[in-house]
Each structure stands twice: as structure tokens, then as C-alpha cells.
Design a protein that fits this description.
Blueprint: H1 16-42, E1 44-49, E2 54-59, E3 64-69, H2 79-109
Antiparallel strand pairs: 1-2, 2-3
Helix pairs in contact: 1-2
């Protein structure tokens, strides 16, 4: 029997305690990420186009919450312009929310050195 070993005790595999610690750290990180995602889902951002003619509000889970269209921009003879204004505002609001989401997640994962995060 090796030095310091008791009968019936199996020696620990090298690094097993370290692996358990890493698993606990990863689980804690996952909980933090889930909490942060829930916070992000509650956030909202707003973007407009046409000098404020169309304003779109988007939630953190990237759902459109509100669209405001100024009456003077509604021209039945130029529906394409209104469609373009809506599309620009929606895309900008979604882009902003994606940037906010990425920035918040980057704060959480900064310094971890985990590829893909």
C-alpha cells in the first residue's frame, strides 16, 4: 500500500478536484448568464427614421413593442417610402439591441478566455 493510503480508499485521479471546481464555476457562470439574459429581455431600445417620422421600440428579446408613425408621413401615393422608413427604423432598433446584448454578455465573460464567448 502506498504511503499515506488507507485500506479500502482509492487514490483520487489527478486533477479530479480541479475538474469539479471548474464544473462548479461553469454552472455559476451559466446561472449568471441566464440571469443576465432575463435582464436583457426586459430592456428596450428605440430607433427612428425620416427625422422621427417613424419610431420603433424593440425589446431585449428582439420583439417589436411599438411603432409610431407621424400622420404627415402617410402618403397613399408613396407607400414605398413609408415601408422603407419602417424597415430602416426596425433594423436599426434590432441592431442596437443586439449591440446592447453583446456588450452586456461581454462584460460577464470578459477575461475568461473561452473561445466563442
Amino acid at each position: 500500500m502506498g504511503k499515506g493510503m488507507r485500506a479500502g480508499k482509492k487514490p483520487k485521479a489527478p486533477g479530479m478536484g480541479n475538474m469539479q471546481k471548474q464544473m462548479q464555476q461553469m454552472q455559476a457562470m451559466q446561472r449568471k448568464m441566464d440571469e443576465l439574459q432575463a435582464e436583457i429581455d426586459e430592456m428596450e431600445t428605440e430607433a427612428s427614421s425620416g427625422g422621427g417620422a417613424v419610431t420603433v421600440k424593440v425589446s431585449g428579446n428582439k420583439e417589436i413593442k411599438d411603432i409610431q408613425i407621424k400622420p404627415d408621413v402617410v402618403d397613399p401615393d408613396d407607400i414605398e417610402m413609408l415601408q422603407d422608413l419602417i424597415m430602416v427604423a426596425v433594423n436599426e432598433a434590432l441592431r442596437q439591441m443586439e449591440e446592447i446584448s453583446q456588450n452586456e454578455m461581454n462584460k460577464l465573460t470578459a477575461g475568461l478566455g473561452i473561445p466563442g464567448l
